[in-house]
Every structure is written in C-alpha cells, then in structure tokens.
Amino acid sequence: MNMPPSPSGAEHMDGSSVRLGALVPLTRPGWVEAGRHLLAGLDLAVREVNDAGGIDGRPLELVVRDTAADPERAAAAVDELAGLGVAAVVGEYHSVVARGAAARADALGVPFLCSSAVLDALTEEPTEWVARLAPAQSHGWRIYADFLLGAGRRRIAVATQASVYWASGTRVLRDHLAPRGGTVVELDTNALTPEALCDALVDHGATALLLLVGHPEPAVPIVRAVRGDRRLAEILIGAPAGQPEFAEWAALLGEDGSGIPFLRYLPERLGPLGERVGKELREQLGEAPSFVAFEGWDTVTVLAAVLRSHGTDRAAIAESWPRVAVEGTRGPIRFSRTPGISVWQWAWTPVQVVDRDPAEPDRFRILHVG
Q1: What is the pTM of this model?
Q2: 175-199: b (≥16 Cβ within 10 Å) or e
C-alpha cells in the first residue's frame, strides 16, 4: 500500500519541501508494532525540524512506503522514491528487507540511512551510499552470547526458521560460544511442532532455548509449550532479536512472556535529550517507546544536520557520512568504517540484555550491558 506523506508541522513554511523516503513495515507479515514505533520516531523528528525552520527555510517532508517485510517491495519502493526526487531514504526494521533496499539504493546512487536493521552484510560489496545506526548483528549477538555464558548456559538450542538473518545469528552465536565451551544445536520449527520441539530440548539436555523465529507465529506457541512442560522448568528462554520489547508480546503471553532476555539498544540511563524525546514519544504512541522509536528520531535528526550542512545533492549527502557528528538520544553519533561491515556504521550504540520482570511484566530489568 502507498502511504500519504506524513503530517510534518510544515504548513507554515514557504518553498518546495525537502523530501525523505521512509521504509517502514506497517502491515503483516511485517513486524507491525516495530514499524509503528519507527514511524513515530521519524515523524516526531520531522515535526521538530520543521518547527525549528526546516532545512534552510524549506519544510522537511516524509514520504512513507510500507514494506510489509518484503525485500522486493522495498527495492521497488526505493525505485519509486528515487523517481519522486527524495534527497535520501531512511528507515526499515527487518534486516533482509533493508538489505534489498540497500542494494537498490547503492545501484541508483540514493543515500540510505538504515535505522534499525542489523545484518552485517547489508550490502554485498562496500558502499559509500549506505550508513547505519543500529549495531551490527555480530556485535550485539556476541554480547548476548557473553550474557548466556555469564548465566552458566552453555548447551544452547536455537529454534529457527529459514532466513539469512536467523542463519547469520546462529553462526555468530556458534562462533562465539564454541571456543568458550558452549554448543549450539538447531531445531527447525518448520519440521517440529512446539511439543516435538520440547521433546528435542529434553533429548539434547539444552539449558537455553533461543527463539530465532517470527513473532507472533511461531514464537508465541513455542513459549507456551515450553512454559507448560514440567521437564523444562529450568530452561532459559531467550530472544536476542527483541520480540519481547513490544506490548503485543506481553498482551499475548502474559506472565509466560516475562523472564525472556532480549537485546535492546538503549543506554542504562537516558540523558536530558533522550528523556525529552522519550516523553514526547510516549505521548504520541500512548505507551512506552521502544528503542526502535528512538532509532527513528535519531535517523531524521542525523539527516537534518547533514542536509543543513551539505545541501540536498545526493552525492554530497553520501560523501558527508564520515563527517557526521550529531548528538542523538542515546549518545553522540558518528559513522566510521568497521572491519567486516560494508556500510558506514555507528560503532556503537549502547547495547543491553534485558527482560520483562516476572513480578511486574511491564517493567524491564537490565541483566547485562555490552
């Protein structure tokens, strides 16, 4: 579906708008709740830019396209947005979708600031056109593996689905855990019912089960089955990709959804800027903002600074990535070349392992900091 331009608080300004294309999963099978939070952050920052005079007096305008977690749809959207004359493209949550968008942006010479996707190989070859705010998967998931080791969990089972993202995550975990005495066994959720998966966990003597699967299906039925199996009372369920971050998780699973550690890209304490933006986002969303909402706000704030300093020429924007120095909600943002990463990378946003407190499922507990 094609989305109309977002309301941007720009009605009072003269001159043609500076357009940014925004890729967001807003319909299933996309992770819709993540898309809603990402768009809220993007929208809020655009309004604030325009309230402060826009880009040299020109309003900033967000042209939103729904990716629905489809890489081909995202690539087609980049084509369309390029034709509409956007200065740059921002957003996307799903790694495989962002990879499709990044490849197309690189081919067309359109700057793409990826907000939230973590796959290391966002492009096949190094590119000057793409920068990223989210930490690379290899960075965040190694921190998660260290948390597992610290918690005494060395016999790890991963419930998986076929995906470049899940396969990459499994490889990161295995490479990091194996030299430290950990093992990883893969359980294919397409071949195993939740009940059969429980039997396999018992057979393997697993001490942790990681959900490398979609949400709500099949993650929710798996959690219910494991929680209901007395043989698995001591197993740790984990979700490094962050499924428990969003309110829908708690609504679907209740107490069963608590005590499941996941990765979150926030500092232990937000500074004054993060506190202010968090308060605005909470009012806009009607609930606590996830880290994805902060990623959205930071994305537009970085690009607004680039547009003010370097203008709207696409090549000039891409050339500016190494010169970015912007205060974001979660710390100072700069981009650099990072070994093994093909795009300009913020190295690194803060990384936490958190869970929902079993005593108070709406409260998050910080378990480990990377």
Answers
A1: 0.94
A2: ebbeeeebebeebebeebebeebbe
